[in-house]
Amino acid sequence: MAKPYKAHKPKQVPSRAKILEFIEKSEQPAGKREIAKAFQLRGSDKIALKALLKDMADEGLIDSTPGRAFHKMGGVPKVTVLKIVEIDGNEAIGMPERWEADAPAPRLRIKERGRRAALAVGDRILARTEERGQGHIAYMMKKIAQSSEMLLGVVEKGERDRFWLKPVDRKIRRNTAISDLGEAEVGNLVLAEPVGRGTQIKAQVKEVLGDPFAPKSFSLIAIHKFEIPLEFPSDVVSEAEQATTLKLSTQDREDLTDLPIVAIDPADARDHDDAIWAAADDDADNVGGFKAIIAIADVSFYVRSGSKLDREAYKRGNSVYFPDRVVPMLPEALSTDVCSLKQDVDRAALACHLKIDAKGNVVSSRFTRAIVRLAGNIAYEDAQAAIDGNLEHPMKVTALEPLWACWKLLAKARDGREPLSLDLPEKRVVLDDQGRIAEIAIRERLDAHRLVEDYMIAANVAAAKMLESKKSPLIYRVHETPSREKLIALKDYLKSFDVSFAMGQVIKPSVFNRLIEQVGEAEILPLVMEQILRSQTQAYYGATNMGHFGLSLASYAHFTSPIRRYADLIVHRALVSGCKLEQPEPENDNIPPLSGLSKDMADRLDMISEKISQLERRAMKAEWETVDRYISAHLSDQVGQVLKCRITGVQNFGFFATVEELGGDGLVPVRTLGAERFDYDEQKQQLEGMDSGIVYNIGQKLDLRLVEANAATGSLVFELAEGANHMKGSFEPRRGRSGAKGKPHRKGKRGRPGNIKHRGR
């Protein structure tokens, strides 16, 4: 007898919180089927669950893996594909191959059960992950085939007419056999797809990029290596073009078009974030003081929270500047057009109004949305020449002279707080019409540069303090006090020059300034300043205020460059919300209405800060490596010649040296220093011959022979020049104790100094 029909009694679909709790606690990958089973859902309930999971994904609460298992957004899936990014001793470290969360991708230590597999950087593994404390670890399940991630390299021809792909990344030691050359020729820079498994991986050429020594190839190498987005998606470009149609209204904005506001920038600048104006204050309560306006492009008006433009800008984090090109954060319709402040054109601006007293102190500030019409775009050199009386300029009396008079007050206040004063020369690559290096020039430091910097710093401080007064969340620019370990290393380094540095004192920027004054004009001054720079921590973005040590400021944010930095765009949005400057909804239905800081974004500032800090470091590395490639190309015709160099870093495997007056770090391998063994002292940063007692340490000037200059990788290799004088000037190698017992070699890392030079631009 058939069982009577029993109608399905709908169960209540679980809440978002319960689903998140189940996903986090599940020991197995949790897909829609597992969630439905756990909550005993059937029929129409499953349809409702599917809709809810889609909503949760759209809201950024969960994400799904390719296998359709869910995990908390920003969390790590229970089973996922990891890419090996580092080998640390006997442990491999991997990062999720697919990562769409706002937070930076985590690094997981790989625990391999049984015998260790031969893992190398770039390998892919399937791994089961486990939460451990504040992080995760991963257990390798199996090694899997390489993905279709493209390889970048130069085609070379080997024995028996075999072709090989030589990587342009100096960290990758092995060449890859080419199975399909396509239309490539020997010497071409190409993108190739890896095919095969393990040691049998071969490369199939997919795109010929051309001559690796051709103009723009060096920056292209860095762009591909660091996965910097080059082209904008068509829908983002379309949205940018739509945004340019937004109308400016003097009804909703302060009209500043009658003021002689000017932008002072490099002569070749394509985007102009900022413009400045100053005049003597006519307020009887501020005798001898000035009023000033720092007008910044109102990017938040065009790039709305949650728009496609916004997501793409966040993905990029910042613009990247190479000698031959700029990879912008925003499409050109915005970055070089409607958001760029230009002469005689009405532009939307966020204006910082400052009142400055006779001592240079900012006594009040306010922020408005404004319309500006610049009276001029002036190059640094022209502004300086006009003030010095070497150039007649129509804006000298109306704009430049008041700016300089006000700046003298700001400079007085800056000198009073004593920020870190490191006057290190800044090199720039000058290209000719063919894109080759014409020269490596020292960037001239003019008062015009310092003037603009001080106005920008004043505006950045005002923005931070304004948002603090409004109790608004914001992203700070943070530069912390140097660590004790770095200070000890500095002390040991200075001791080698008989320069004392007392530990235990309260460390302020003025301590380092006094140290620089103590050294005076001695030949070691540039070396001491370099080492002071190396002792500093790296600046970063953070939602928690830790102050800015280098600038000697308690509160500091980046406000003045929203065209090229996402952090500044966040600060603009916070000011729009905090100062109640929101504009009416735009007429274009395709553009989100909110130009202020959304609650969702405010809640994610910690993750946003960390990610854009990582993207900033990526940009810096890409820029550095590109300059290295240009310098290597410039030196390629000098292989075999003896060059005057200076040691810039010492490791157990050799020392790094830079060509004086040019730059570009090259390695002198320890094996080329002779038959004797060398003892590496990590604290003193030196190599000492165990028999001869000859010492090689930072700062020594040496005559070195250039052995190799590889433009594709940007690497240089030197050796000691036979018969050349290696004991030059006051940095001659010092003799130690002959036959002294060697200390065990310690592995070190080569690094660049942390970036603390912030122009606020």
Q: Sheet bearing the most strands, described? A: 5 strands, mixed, barrel
Which regions have little confidence, pLDDT < 50, spanning 5+ residues?
1-10, 724-761
**Total number of helical segments?**
17
Radius of gyration, Cα only, in angstroms?
Answer: 29 Å
> What is the structural class?
alpha+beta
Strand order of the largest sheet: 4-5-6-8-7
What is the general shape? Answer: globular
What distance lies between the first and last C-alpha atoms, to the nearest angstrom? 84 Å
The percent range for strand residues is: 25-35%
Q: What portion of residues is helical?
A: 25-40%
Q: What would the average pLDDT be, to the nearest integer?
A: 84
Q: Work out the number of β strands.
A: 34
Report what the structure shows.
This protein is α+β, with helices and mostly antiparallel strands. 27% of the residues lie in helices and 26% in strands. It has 17 helices and 34 strands. The chain has a five-stranded mixed β-barrel. A hairpin with a 2-residue loop joins β4 and β5. α11 crosses α15. The radius of gyration is 29 Å and the shape is globular. The termini are far apart.
How is the secondary structure organized here?
Blueprint: H1 16-25, E1 30-31, H2 32-38, H3 44-58, E2 62-64, E3 69-72, E4 79-88, E5 91-96, E6 108-111, E7 124-132, E8 135-144, E9 151-157, E10 163-167, E11 176-180, E12 189-195, E13 202-210, H4 217-225, H5 234-243, E14 254-255, E15 262-265, E16 274-280, E17 290-297, H6 299-302, H7 308-316, E18 320-321, E19 326-327, H8 332-338, E20 346-356, E21 362-373, E22 376-379, H9 380-387, H10 396-417, E23 427-431, E24 437-442, H11 447-469, E25 476-478, H12 484-495, H13 509-519, H14 525-535, E26 540-542, H15 566-578, H16 599-603, H17 605-635, E27 642-651, E28 654-659, E29 663-669, E30 678-681, E31 686-689, E32 695-697, E33 701-710, E34 715-720
Parallel strand pairs: 6-8, 11-13, 14-21, 15-22
Antiparallel strand pairs: 1-3, 2-3, 4-5, 4-7, 5-6, 7-8, 9-10, 9-12, 10-11, 12-13, 16-17, 17-20, 18-19, 20-21, 23-24, 25-26, 27-28, 27-33, 28-29, 30-31, 31-32, 33-34
Helix pairs in contact: 4-17, 10-11, 11-15, 12-14
